[in-house]
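Reopening: C-alpha cells for the pyridoxal-5'-phosphate complex, inputs below.
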Amino acid sequence: MSKPATQPHDVYAIDRWGRDLFSVLENGDLGLKNPMRVDAAPVSLPDIMSDLEERGIHAPLVLRVSPFLEHGIRHINASFAQAIAQVGYNGVYRGVFPIKVNQQAQVIDRIVQFGRQYSYGLEAGSKAELVIALAHRLARDALIVCNGVKDAEFISLALLSRKLGFNTVVVLESPKELETVLTVAAELGQEPLLGVRVKLTNQIGGAWSESSGDRSTFGMHTDQLVAVIDRLKEAGMLHCLKLQHSHLGSQIPDVNDVRRATREACRYFIELTREGVELTHLDLGGGLGVDYTGEKNASENSINYSVAEYATNIVETVAYELDGAGLDHPVLVTESGRAVVATSSMLIFNVLEATLYDGQTSPDAAPDDHHLVGDLIAVQDYLKPARVQECLNDAAYYRNELRALFRRGFIDLRQMARAEQIYLSLMSKIKRLAESGTDFGDQLEKLTDIYHCNFSLFQSLPDVWAIDQLHPVVPLQQLNVVPDRRAVLADITCDSDGKVDRFILDDGVSPSLPVHSLSDATHYYIGVFYVGAYQETLGDLHNLFGDTNVATIELRDDGDFDLLHEQEGDTIAEVLSYVEYDPRDCVDAFRQMVDQATSEKRLKAADRKALMTAYRGSISGYTYYE
Ligand SMILES: Cc1ncc(COP(=O)(O)O)c(C=O)c1O
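Re-run output (same inputs, fresh job):
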C-alpha cells in the first residue's frame, strides 16, 4: 500500500489529537470545525484573531468556542444514554459539572444552558461554589452535589436551598461533619439530602494517582462509614442518606482502572444497602481523561479509551454487580470536569521576537584576529556529516576559550562579537546538514531558537509549569509551508522557568516546536489547545501578569463567527489591588514626587503633564505587551 502524501502540517499531528475540532485550510490557516454541525465550513483562526484585533481585543487571549463546550456536554450525556440503552440499565445518568474545573461565569452559564435538556447539574466543593450553583436555574431533577469540608454556614445554605426545589446533596466527608449536619437540620427543621463519601482502596495510575486509594485525603474508611450509619439510625435519619460518592480519580489513563474502581464502589453500595441504607444514587466522581497527545495509550497525557467506552464500562459494571446482588440499578452520577471543558478553550498569543541560535553570514578572517578566532573559522573547512560531532566539540571548545579570554580582559567586545557570529554561522551549517537527513541525536536541541511570546506561563498554563502537563501547541498560520526553524517558547515573565519546551509532534514528544521564520509584516500567532480545564483559575500573578482577555465565540455555518462575549483582561490597576495596593494611592504618591520636582524646577510643566499621562495610561492598561 502506498503511503499517503505528507503535508507540511503533519508534523503537528493535528489529525491525531484534534481531528473532530480542527482542520488545516487550503491557505495554511488553522481552522475550527463545528462539532455540532459537521457540514459547516471551518472558520479560520487567524481570521478570527485579526477580526478581534480590529475590535480592540488583543492577544494574549483565551478563546472559548461555544460549540466545543456544547459538544463536550452532549458527548458525555449521549454516551451514557447510549450505554444505558445498550446494556438495558434500569436507571438514568445525572452528571454534574465540578465548578472548580472552570468557575468562570460565562463557562458555567453555558454549561447550565446546554446541560438543561440532560438534567445536568453542578458539583460544589466550597461555600463560594455553592453560591455560584444556587445562582443558576437548573432542571427540576438536576443535582447539586456538595463535596469538601463544610461548616455550619455551608450546610445551612445547602439545606435551605431544598426549600426552593434544588436537589442539593450534602456529601458527608467525615463522622464529625454529620454532627454539624444533624445540628443544623434540627435548628432549621429541614431534612437533609445526604451523600456519603467512600474512600476506595483501588489506586489508579497516572499523574493523579495520589488522589485515589487508601491515602487519598477525602472520604471515609469502613469504620467511619459504620459510625455514620449507626449515628444516622440513632437520629432516625438513615432515610436521608441517598447517594454514595466514590471519586475514582482524575485523568485516569487506563480504562481497566475505571472498571476495577467501579466494581469496588459497587461492593460498598451493596453493603450499605444491606445495612438498611436506601441508596438511590451512585456517584463515581471525576476521572474521565482527555487524550492530549491523541496517542490513545495509557500514559500521563493520553488515555486508552473513548468517552463512550468509559460510559459503557461503568454502566456494564454497575449493572452486573447490582444484578448479582439482586438490587435495583441506581441513578448514575459522574463529576467529569476535564473531559467536558478542556477542549473548549485555547490560549492564543503572538510572538514578540526571536533569539536565533544560528547566523547566515560568517565574517572573513582578519589579520588582527586572535588565533582562536582563526581556529573557529577553520572548523568549517572540515565540516561534513562524518565529522559533525568533532566540529561541534571543537567549536564549543574555541568559543568557550574565547569567552574566558573576554572575561579576563584579553580580547575586546568586537572580537568577541565576531567569534559569536562565526560560531552561529557554523551552527547554521550544521543545522542544514541535519535537515538534509543526517541524524545528530539531541546535539542540536541546544541550538534551537527561543521565540519570545506574549503570555505568562504561570498565569495561563500553570499545569505546564507545575506538573509537566502537555498541551497541543501549533502555529495558527503558514501550515502549508514547511517550518524552517525549531524553537522553544519563552514567556514574558522574568523567570527562566517561564517557557514551553515539550511539544506533541507526530513522532513523539519533542523539546522544540517546528516554527516559521518571523516576518516583520504580520503577527505570528501560536495556539495552545485544550486549556479549558483548571488552567483559567489555577494561574498566578507572577510578575503581576494578570488574567488575559477572553472572547467567547459561536461558529457560523458560512465559515464566519459571532462574538458572543468579551471579557477584558486585568488592568494594571486591578492586579495592583490584588497585592494590597490602592491604585489611587500609587497615583497620588507619584504625583507628589512629580509636583515636588516641578516646584523645585527640576521638571518643566509640560514634562509634568507627560509623566502623569504616562503613569495613568500604564495603570489603566493591559498587563501584557501591547
Ligand atoms: C470530588 C471531585 N469530583 C470531580 C473532580 C473532577 O475530576 P476530572 O476533572 O478528572 O473529571 C475532582 C477532581 O479531582 C474531584 O476531586
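The radius of gyration is 30 Å. The chain is about 40% helix and 15% strand. Marking as resolved unless the reporter disagrees.
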